[in-house]
Amino acid sequence: MLHTFVALVQDKPGVLTRVASLFRRLNINIVSLTVGESERADISRMTIVCEAPDHAAHRIRASLYKLEITVDVDEVGRADAVIRELCLIKIAAGPKTRSQIFELANVFRARVVDLAPESVMLEMTGAASKIEGLIQVLTESGYTILEVSRTGRMAMRRGHHTSRVLKALGTPDPDHSDKTSFPEKPQADEILPSEFAEDEI
Protein backbone atom coordinates (compact mmCIF):
# COMPACT_ATOMS: atom_id res chain seq x y z
CA MET A 1 0.00 0.00 0.00
CA LEU A 2 1.34 3.44 -0.93
CA HIS A 3 1.22 6.22 1.67
CA THR A 4 1.91 9.90 0.97
CA PHE A 5 3.33 12.15 3.70
CA VAL A 6 3.96 15.90 3.49
CA ALA A 7 6.55 17.16 5.95
CA LEU A 8 7.63 20.72 6.66
CA VAL A 9 11.29 20.52 7.64
CA GLN A 10 13.95 23.04 8.56
CA ASP A 11 16.24 23.88 5.65
CA LYS A 12 19.51 22.62 7.11
CA PRO A 13 22.37 20.47 5.82
CA GLY A 14 21.80 16.77 6.36
CA VAL A 15 17.99 16.83 6.42
CA LEU A 16 17.65 14.40 3.51
CA THR A 17 20.13 12.06 5.15
CA ARG A 18 18.17 12.12 8.42
CA VAL A 19 14.90 11.29 6.68
CA ALA A 20 16.42 8.56 4.50
CA SER A 21 18.13 7.03 7.54
CA LEU A 22 14.84 7.01 9.43
CA PHE A 23 13.10 5.03 6.70
CA ARG A 24 16.06 2.65 6.52
CA ARG A 25 15.78 1.95 10.27
CA LEU A 26 12.05 1.38 9.90
CA ASN A 27 12.75 -0.95 6.95
CA ILE A 28 10.31 1.03 4.78
CA ASN A 29 10.93 1.51 1.06
CA ILE A 30 10.72 5.09 -0.28
CA VAL A 31 8.99 5.10 -3.67
CA SER A 32 9.57 8.80 -4.33
CA LEU A 33 10.82 11.83 -2.42
CA THR A 34 10.30 15.40 -3.60
CA VAL A 35 11.71 18.37 -1.72
CA GLY A 36 11.86 22.09 -2.41
CA GLU A 37 11.29 25.57 -1.03
CA SER A 38 8.05 26.41 0.76
CA GLU A 39 6.37 29.67 1.75
CA ARG A 40 9.34 30.43 4.02
CA ALA A 41 12.95 30.56 2.96
CA ASP A 42 14.11 28.54 5.99
CA ILE A 43 11.53 25.77 5.55
CA SER A 44 11.41 23.05 2.91
CA ARG A 45 8.31 21.12 1.91
CA MET A 46 8.99 17.41 1.49
CA THR A 47 6.57 14.94 -0.11
CA ILE A 48 7.42 11.33 0.67
CA VAL A 49 5.68 8.38 -0.96
CA CYS A 50 6.46 5.05 0.67
CA GLU A 51 5.30 1.47 0.42
CA ALA A 52 4.14 0.12 3.77
CA PRO A 53 1.26 -1.77 5.39
CA ASP A 54 -1.68 0.36 6.49
CA HIS A 55 -0.99 -0.36 10.17
CA ALA A 56 2.50 1.18 9.82
CA ALA A 57 1.29 4.61 8.66
CA HIS A 58 0.84 6.05 12.18
CA ARG A 59 4.28 4.78 13.21
CA ILE A 60 5.92 6.40 10.17
CA ARG A 61 4.21 9.72 10.85
CA ALA A 62 5.14 9.60 14.54
CA SER A 63 8.77 8.86 13.73
CA LEU A 64 8.96 11.68 11.18
CA TYR A 65 7.32 14.12 13.58
CA LYS A 66 9.77 13.41 16.39
CA LEU A 67 12.80 14.36 14.30
CA GLU A 68 14.01 17.70 15.64
CA ILE A 69 14.22 19.13 12.11
CA THR A 70 10.50 18.47 11.49
CA VAL A 71 8.05 21.36 11.93
CA ASP A 72 4.93 19.46 10.89
CA VAL A 73 3.98 16.22 9.12
CA ASP A 74 0.71 15.10 7.61
CA GLU A 75 -0.48 12.02 5.75
CA VAL A 76 -2.42 13.20 2.71
CA GLY A 77 -2.79 10.04 0.67
CA ARG A 78 -6.41 9.59 1.72
CA ALA A 79 -7.21 13.20 2.48
CA ASP A 80 -8.89 15.87 0.37
CA ALA A 81 -5.70 16.92 -1.37
CA VAL A 82 -4.27 17.76 -4.77
CA ILE A 83 -1.56 15.27 -5.74
CA ARG A 84 0.40 15.84 -8.93
CA GLU A 85 3.57 14.69 -10.64
CA LEU A 86 5.66 16.17 -13.45
CA CYS A 87 7.10 13.90 -16.13
CA LEU A 88 9.38 14.43 -19.13
CA ILE A 89 9.29 11.76 -21.85
CA LYS A 90 11.69 11.66 -24.79
CA ILE A 91 10.48 9.53 -27.70
CA ALA A 92 12.33 8.45 -30.84
CA ALA A 93 10.46 10.07 -33.73
CA GLY A 94 11.24 11.19 -37.23
CA PRO A 95 9.21 13.47 -39.52
CA LYS A 96 6.84 10.62 -40.48
CA THR A 97 5.76 9.70 -36.95
CA ARG A 98 5.62 13.06 -35.19
CA SER A 99 2.03 13.84 -36.10
CA GLN A 100 0.75 10.68 -34.39
CA ILE A 101 2.72 11.52 -31.25
CA PHE A 102 1.31 15.05 -31.29
CA GLU A 103 -2.20 13.57 -31.43
CA LEU A 104 -1.52 11.32 -28.44
CA ALA A 105 -0.03 14.25 -26.53
CA ASN A 106 -3.19 16.25 -27.18
CA VAL A 107 -5.41 13.44 -25.88
CA PHE A 108 -3.41 13.24 -22.62
CA ARG A 109 -2.96 17.04 -22.41
CA ALA A 110 0.80 16.74 -22.61
CA ARG A 111 2.94 19.50 -24.13
CA VAL A 112 5.71 19.26 -26.70
CA VAL A 113 8.71 20.99 -25.09
CA ASP A 114 11.50 19.91 -27.44
CA LEU A 115 11.60 18.85 -31.08
CA ALA A 116 14.80 17.39 -32.52
CA PRO A 117 15.45 15.72 -35.89
CA GLU A 118 15.16 12.24 -34.36
CA SER A 119 13.15 12.77 -31.18
CA VAL A 120 10.25 14.51 -29.48
CA MET A 121 10.10 15.46 -25.81
CA LEU A 122 6.78 15.69 -24.01
CA GLU A 123 6.00 17.34 -20.68
CA MET A 124 3.06 16.10 -18.67
CA THR A 125 1.62 17.05 -15.29
CA GLY A 126 -1.04 15.00 -13.55
CA ALA A 127 -1.80 12.01 -11.41
CA ALA A 128 0.65 9.12 -11.53
CA SER A 129 -1.98 6.91 -13.19
CA LYS A 130 -2.39 9.42 -16.01
CA ILE A 131 1.36 9.56 -16.64
CA GLU A 132 1.63 5.79 -16.58
CA GLY A 133 -1.28 5.63 -19.01
CA LEU A 134 0.54 7.79 -21.55
CA ILE A 135 3.72 5.75 -21.20
CA GLN A 136 1.74 2.54 -21.67
CA VAL A 137 -0.05 3.83 -24.79
CA LEU A 138 3.22 5.02 -26.33
CA THR A 139 4.83 1.64 -25.67
CA GLU A 140 1.88 -0.38 -26.96
CA SER A 141 1.73 1.81 -30.08
CA GLY A 142 5.27 0.75 -30.95
CA TYR A 143 7.12 3.97 -30.14
CA THR A 144 10.59 3.78 -28.62
CA ILE A 145 10.83 5.71 -25.36
CA LEU A 146 14.40 6.96 -25.03
CA GLU A 147 14.24 8.63 -21.62
CA VAL A 148 11.75 9.18 -18.81
CA SER A 149 12.24 11.57 -15.90
CA ARG A 150 9.60 11.84 -13.17
CA THR A 151 9.63 14.19 -10.20
CA GLY A 152 7.62 11.96 -7.91
CA ARG A 153 4.44 13.13 -6.22
CA MET A 154 3.87 16.62 -4.88
CA ALA A 155 0.89 17.07 -2.58
CA MET A 156 -1.05 19.84 -0.88
CA ARG A 157 -4.28 19.68 1.11
CA ARG A 158 -7.22 21.63 -0.22
CA GLY A 159 -8.99 24.66 1.23
CA HIS A 160 -9.25 25.28 4.97
CA HIS A 161 -6.37 22.97 5.86
CA THR A 162 -4.04 25.89 5.05
CA SER A 163 -4.60 27.26 8.56
CA ARG A 164 -2.87 24.20 10.01
CA VAL A 165 0.23 24.88 7.91
CA LEU A 166 0.33 28.57 8.83
CA LYS A 167 0.08 27.69 12.52
CA ALA A 168 2.94 25.22 12.20
CA LEU A 169 5.12 27.75 10.40
CA GLY A 170 4.56 30.49 12.97
CA THR A 171 5.00 34.23 12.32
CA PRO A 172 8.01 36.49 11.66
CA ASP A 173 9.89 37.66 14.73
CA PRO A 174 9.62 41.51 14.77
CA ASP A 175 12.80 41.81 16.86
CA HIS A 176 14.91 39.92 14.31
CA SER A 177 13.94 40.93 10.80
CA ASP A 178 16.37 38.46 9.24
CA LYS A 179 15.09 35.52 11.28
CA THR A 180 11.78 33.83 11.97
CA SER A 181 10.51 32.00 15.00
CA PHE A 182 8.57 28.78 15.26
CA PRO A 183 5.69 28.21 17.64
CA GLU A 184 6.36 25.67 20.33
CA LYS A 185 6.11 22.23 18.78
CA PRO A 186 3.33 20.11 20.35
CA GLN A 187 4.35 16.87 21.99
CA ALA A 188 3.81 13.75 19.92
CA ASP A 189 1.08 12.49 22.24
CA GLU A 190 -0.93 15.68 21.59
CA ILE A 191 -1.41 14.97 17.88
CA LEU A 192 -0.70 11.26 17.46
CA PRO A 193 -2.43 8.14 18.77
CA SER A 194 -1.07 7.29 22.21
CA GLU A 195 0.19 3.87 21.16
CA PHE A 196 2.59 5.54 18.70
CA ALA A 197 3.56 8.70 20.58
CA GLU A 198 6.11 6.87 22.72
CA ASP A 199 7.67 4.80 19.93
CA GLU A 200 11.42 4.92 19.67
CA ILE A 201 12.86 5.82 16.28
Automatic annotation (TrEMBL):
Domain named ACT: residues: 4-78
Keywords per UniProt: Amino-acid biosynthesis, Branched-chain amino acid biosynthesis, Transferase
Keyword Amino-acid biosynthesis (UniProt): yes
Residues covered by region (Disordered): 165-201
One GO-annotated biological process of the protein: L-valine biosynthetic process
InterPro entries: Acetalactate_synth_ssu (IPR004789), Acetolactate_synth/TF_NikR_C (IPR027271), Acetolactate_synth_ssu_C (IPR019455), ACT-like_dom_sf (IPR045865), ACT_dom (IPR002912), AHAS_ACT (IPR039557), AHAS_small-like_ACT (IPR054480)
Pfam families, per the entry: ACT_AHAS_ss (PF22629), ALS_ss_C (PF10369)
GO CC entries: cytosol
Enzyme Commission number(s) from the entry: 2.2.1.6
Pathway: Amino-acid biosynthesis; L-valine biosynthesis; L-valine from pyruvate: step 1/4; Amino-acid biosynthesis; L-isoleucine biosynthesis; L-isoleucine from 2-oxobutanoate: step 1/4
EC category name: transferase
Reaction catalysis annotation: 2 pyruvate + H(+) = (2S)-2-acetolactate + CO2
GO molecular function: acetolactate synthase activity; acetolactate synthase regulator activity
Comp. bias regions, Basic and acidic residues: 173-188
Stated family: Belongs to the acetolactate synthase small subunit family.
NCBIfam families the record matches: acolac_sm, PRK11895.1
Summary of subunit composition and partner proteins: Dimer of large and small chains.
Protein name: acetolactate synthase
